[in-house]
TrEMBL record:
NCBIfam families reported for this sequence: PRK08363.1 (NF006230)
InterPro entries cross-referenced by the UniProt entry: Ala_Aminotransferase, Aminotransferase_I/II_large, PyrdxlP-dep_Trfase, PyrdxlP-dep_Trfase_major, PyrdxlP-dep_Trfase_small
Molecular function per GO: pyridoxal phosphate binding; transaminase activity
Cofactor: pyridoxal 5'-phosphate
Species annotation: Thermococcus cleftensis (strain DSM 27260 / KACC 17922 / CL1)
Domain Aminotransferase class I/classII large: 31-384
Origin organism lineage: Archaea, Methanobacteriati, Methanobacteriota, Thermococci, Thermococcales
Entry protein name: Aminotransferase 2
Keywords of the record: Aminotransferase, Pyridoxal phosphate, Transferase
């Protein structure tokens, strides 16, 4: 047998891992309600018309060539305008890089920051690629606690305790996946103060920035004075175009501390040539076009969020914090005597109730004894899922 690398074989991705047993059931003709993947395009959400048209037009008009590694100048200009409007940041197109979605931005940033044995502070629980990609690039994902009793806000004291001489950056995911938390301005300020104290950059994942139900998103990029912040965003969530694989990031670096990191990132960007050219035309249309679709979509999402939250609070054996952003809810399993782990719980629910959740421990140690539910589907589907799940819980707890 030809051996694969340990680096690649060591990758874990809980969100897709639970799909195999679900597929097994489906092969036997059993209908499974999948609430495991955060992809709006699988339900009644599509990118707005003007973006779709711009994408098709770009292809038809011959924009099918390689573009610049850093992204098309018109798009970088549009990103500056969008981000000035949203975050009031003082940046120019020179500070912006376009990527194959946030996932590639993470690869560039971790690849440029990490030597073997270095670490990045990442939230626990967190979106799994933070742990997986940091490890892939030879680093250690150094998890800091976010506190459920405090609406899943980061624990600044814990963050401070976790910083050591090999820490290279602090990653913040806000609004958060999997908890749906929206961080307070005070928390963001405290994170920036801490980063400043230890001379660390902040990496800010803002992919859900305009997807909030209560309150508004605050970016560390908008509050920083001297701490370097790398802000990431893209088309996948707020613009409902997950499959187009387009995103961007930019540097807010008032004192020029990231000069070498920027050079390293540009080297990585050049060897991968460029992001998709026609998708960038669609992005220009999205970032400069009307946003009325978002209001309609957020109204649907809020109805779904309110529905699933109400149903979950009526089910025995679990407790739930109300998410304030994104489209995930992360209940806690209170009754633990019936299962050995949260993964066993999720598999039991899959086999018995035919609903697919993701086990919380797949999102880091603070996710232990929780599970994540995606509430993107219409209420009728959520209703069926919750009816099945409620019957399952009542049976198990009787
Ligand atoms: N960051 C967070 C917090 C996410 O939840 C996701 C997807 O679920 C991503 C990044 C992936 O974004 P992209 O599609 O832009 O790679």
């Amino acid at each position: 047998m030809i051996r694969a690398s340990e680096r690649a074989m060591g990758i874990e991705y809980a969100i897709r891992d639970v799909v195999l047993p679900a597929r097994e059931l489906e092969r036997k003709g059993i209908k499974v309600i999948r609430l495991n993947i955060g992809d709006p395009g699988k339900y009644d959400f599509q990118p707005p018309e003007h973006m779709q048209e711009a994408y098709c037009r770009a292809i038809k008009e011959g924009h099918n060539y390689y573009g610049p590694s850093e992204g098309l100048p018109e798009l970088r200009e549009a990103i500056v305008t969008r981000e000035k409007r949203k975050n009031g940041v003082d940046i120019t197109p020179e500070d912006v890089r376009v990527t194959a979605a946030v996932t590639e931005a993470l690869q560039f940033i971790f690849g440029a920051l990490l030597n073997p044995g270095d670490n990045i502070l990442v939230p626990s629980p967190s979106y799994p690629p933070y742990v997986g990609l940091v490890k892939f690039y030879g680093g250690i994902a150094n998890e800091y606690l976010t506190v459920e009793e405090n609406g899943w806000q980061p624990d600044i004291d814990d963050m401070r305790k976790k910083i050591n001489e090999r820490t290279k950056a602090i990653a913040v995911i806000n609004p958060n996946n999997p908890t749906g938390a929206l961080y307070e301005k005070k928390t963001i300020k405290e994170i920036l103060d801490l980063a400043g104290e230890y001379d660390l950059p902040v990496i800010s994942d803002e992919i859900y920035d305009l997807m909030t139900y209560e309150g508004k998103h605050v970016s560390p990029g908008s509050l920083t004075k001297d701490v370097p912040v790398i802000v990431m965003n893209g088309l996948s969530k707020v613009y409902f175009a997950t499959g187009w694989r387009l995103g961007y990031f930019y540097y807010v670096d008032p004192e020029g501390k990231l000069e070498e990191v920027r050079e390293a990132i540009d080297k990585m960007a050049r060897i991968r040539i460029c992001p998709s050219t026609p998708a960038q035309f669609a992005a220009i249309a999205g970032l400069t076009g009307p946003m009325d679709y978002l209001e309609r979509y957020m109204a649907k999402l809020k109805e779904r969020r309110d529905y699933i939250y109400r149903r979950l609070t009526e089910i025995p054996g679990i407790s739930t914090t109300k998410p304030q952003g994104a489209f995930y809810i992360f209940p806690r399993i209170e009754e633990r005597s019936k299962w050995k782990s949260d993964k066993e719980f999720v598999l039991d629910a899959l086999h018995e109730a035919h609903v697919l959740f993701v086990h919380g421990s797949g999102f880091g140690y603070a996710g232990d004894w929780h599970f994540r539910i995606v509430f993107l589907p219409p209420v009728e589907i959520l209703e069926e899922a919750m009816d099945n799940f409620e019957a399952f819980m009542r049976k198990r707890l009787s």
